[in-house]
């Protein structure tokens, strides 16, 4: 099938840039924006619209509908379409609502007009044009009458490009420079539907159309925006994101269904609209040396199923808070762990070092003792936090003396591998019996373990938000002989273990 190109030249190309792009997108995805107009590929539209003349008339009708002045041309080569469209027939001013002004501002130039183009519109040097004028050669048809070999012998091999242009055999290609960032699809229902699951088969068809368009650009998507118009004249919108790009339709259908079921629309659905945002595809290597691991789609679907069972606020990625609180972490329900390969330098610089008292600080920042009370000078800090540089590969023991040492800053260039001390909360806390002798913790007994206290650190009686949340507990970090390191708390006359350090 022969190629076919359309060109619109507008006297107000900069002002009407968005209107020109919108018009071109009605007919093509391969678009090149010119200084004085727009160029786009309309190959294949003959089967849908008709002959090139019919395609050009449809483009002209779209220009009139958007009140955009311009000259339209459709031809089999890029050069021919541009030259035809650049004929000085379009008016430079915007047209009014009258039919006469519209016909003056929007013009149609057909390929049979190419032979009448003046030679000054071609890429010919002025000295050569002067010679042609003296010889009585003013139009393309005049130059076509001269033997081409004579023109090449006279003006050199560079003139062959001009000859190809007038023969409408130019080899210039479209260089798309209008980038798509998203695609949309919509559907109007004949009758309002209350159950979203009844619309899954329609949504499946829409996603097929969207993903085909995205794949046409060699891209993928990791975000879909879905909006429903409801029978009560309201609109319900859902923003669905993943931490990885994918065009797997079954996965997106399940994810959308789970997301909508968590917060269903308040009324019956009358129409739906889906917008997919472009992103680079996910690189994957599946071969002999690839490590076998679950697909991220499976993990995300499992997480959303759990959210449906226990609630969104109870599922997420734990985020450590740099605060002294009863439970110094929160759950980010929207975040998902991303599997990225990092080198040792990145791994060290991003790793968190955690103090025994439960706070976290980045290795790239100096550690601060802001958890128990308002900041004090470094030389006055004592007995409030344990040492933060703890190796995760060996059994930890610490004393109140070492815990009283000031916190030190961990420089990002330090090469030794500092691990993370993890803390597991007991729900509910474990009741304990504690023997205290001479103001020191001596022995701890629970229904799970018992033993002498080897060393301990504490006591802490304050939190990061003492002005907002009173803290009635007293806390210690204790090492029990032959068992482990635990968080010991006392509230009133009751003792209990709230968790264990790993």
Describe this entry's structure for a reader.
The strands form five sheets. This protein has a six-stranded antiparallel beta barrel with strand order 14-15-16-17-18-19. Strands 2-3-1-4-5 form a five-stranded mixed sheet. The protein has a four-stranded antiparallel sheet with strand order 6-9-7-8, covered by helices on one side. 25% of the residues lie in helices and 25% in strands. The longest helix is centred in the middle third of the chain and has 17 residues, at 200-216. Helix 10 runs parallel beside helix 11. It folds into three domains: 1-178, Reverse transcriptase/Diguanylate cyclase domain (Alpha-Beta Plaits); 182-277, Dna Ligase, domain 1 (2-Layer Sandwich), CATH 3.30.1490; 316-502, no CATH class. The protein is an alpha+beta fold and 502 residues long. The chain is built from 13 helices and 19 strands.
Provide key terms for this protein.
502 residues; alpha+beta; Alpha-Beta Plaits; 5-stranded mixed sheet; 13 helices; elongated
Topology:
Elements: E1 5-9, H1 17-25, E2 31-33, E3 37-41, H2 52-65, E4 70-75, H3 78-85, H4 99-105, E5 106-109, H5 126-134, H6 140-144, H7 148-155, H8 160-166, E6 182-193, H9 200-216, E7 223-230, E8 235-241, H10 249-262, E9 269-277, H11 296-310, E10 317-320, E11 329-332, H12 344-350, E12 352-354, E13 360-362, H13 400-403, E14 423-437, E15 440-445, E16 450-460, E17 474-480, E18 484-491, E19 494-501
Parallel strand pairs: 4-5
Antiparallel strand pairs: 1-3, 1-4, 2-3, 6-9, 7-8, 7-9, 10-11, 12-13, 14-15, 14-19, 15-16, 16-17, 17-18, 18-19
């Amino acid at each position: 099938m022969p190629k076919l190109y359309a060109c619109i030249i507008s006297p107000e190309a900069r002002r009407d840039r968005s209107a020109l792009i919108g018009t071109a997108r009605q007919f093509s995805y391969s678009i090149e924006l010119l200084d004085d107009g727009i160029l786009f590929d309309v190959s294949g539209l003959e089967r849908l619209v008709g002959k090139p003349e019919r395609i050009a008339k449809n483009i002209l009708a779209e220009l009139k509908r958007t009140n955009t002045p311009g000259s339209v041309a459709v031809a089999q080569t890029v050069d021919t379409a541009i030259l035809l469209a650049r004929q000085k027939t379009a008016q430079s001013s915007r047209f009014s609502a009258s039919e006469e002004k519209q016909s003056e501002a929007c013009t149609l130039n057909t390929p049979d007009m190419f032979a009448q183009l003046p030679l000054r519109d071609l890429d010919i040097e002025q000295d050569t044009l002067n010679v042609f004028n003296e010889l009585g050669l003013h139009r393309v048809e005049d130059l076509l009458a001269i033997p081409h070999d004579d023109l090449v012998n006279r003006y050199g091999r560079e003139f062959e490009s001009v000859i190809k242009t007038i023969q409408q055999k130019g080899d210039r290609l479209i260089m798309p420079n209008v980038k798509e960032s998203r695609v949309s699809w919509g559907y109007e229902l004949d009758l309002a539907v209350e159950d979203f699951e009844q619309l899954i088969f329609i949504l499946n068809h829409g996603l097929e159309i969207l993903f085909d368009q995205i794949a046409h650009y060699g891209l993928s998507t990791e975000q879909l925006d879905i909006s429903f118009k409801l029978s009560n004249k309201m609109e319900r919108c859902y923003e669905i994101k993943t931490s990885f790009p994918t065009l797997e339709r079954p996965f997106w259908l399940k994810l959308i269904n789970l997301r909508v079921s968590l917060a269903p629309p308040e009324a019956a659905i009358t129409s739906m609209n889906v917008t997919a945002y472009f992103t680079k595809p996910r690189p994957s290597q599946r071969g002999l040396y690839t490590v076998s691991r679950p697909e991220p789609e499976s993990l995300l679907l499992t997480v959303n199923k759990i959210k449906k069972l226990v609630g969104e606020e109870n599922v997420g990625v734990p985020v450590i808070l740099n605060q002294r609180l009863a439970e110094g972490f929160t759950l980010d329900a929207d975040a998902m762990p991303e599997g990225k390969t990092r080198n040792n330098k990145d791994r060290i610089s991003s790793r968190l070092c955690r103090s025994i008292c439960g706070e976290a600080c980045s290795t790239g920042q100096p550690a601060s003792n802001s958890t128990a009370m308002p900041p004090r000078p470094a030389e006055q800090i004592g007995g409030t936090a344990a040492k933060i540089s703890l190796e995760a590969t060996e059994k930890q023991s610490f004393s109140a003396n070492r815990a009283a040492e000031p916190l030190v800053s961990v420089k990002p260039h330090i090469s030794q591998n500092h691990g993370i001390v993890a803390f597991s909360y007991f729900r509910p806390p474990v009741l304990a019996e504690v023997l205290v002798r001479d103001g020191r913790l001596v022995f701890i007994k629970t229904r799970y373990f018992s033993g002498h206290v080897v060393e301990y650190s504490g006591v802490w009686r304050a939190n990061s938000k003492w002005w907002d949340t009173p803290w009635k507990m007293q806390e210690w970090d204790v090492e029990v002989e032959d068992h482990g390191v635990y968080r010991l708390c006392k509230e009133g006359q009751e003792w209990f273990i709230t968790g264990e350090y790993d």
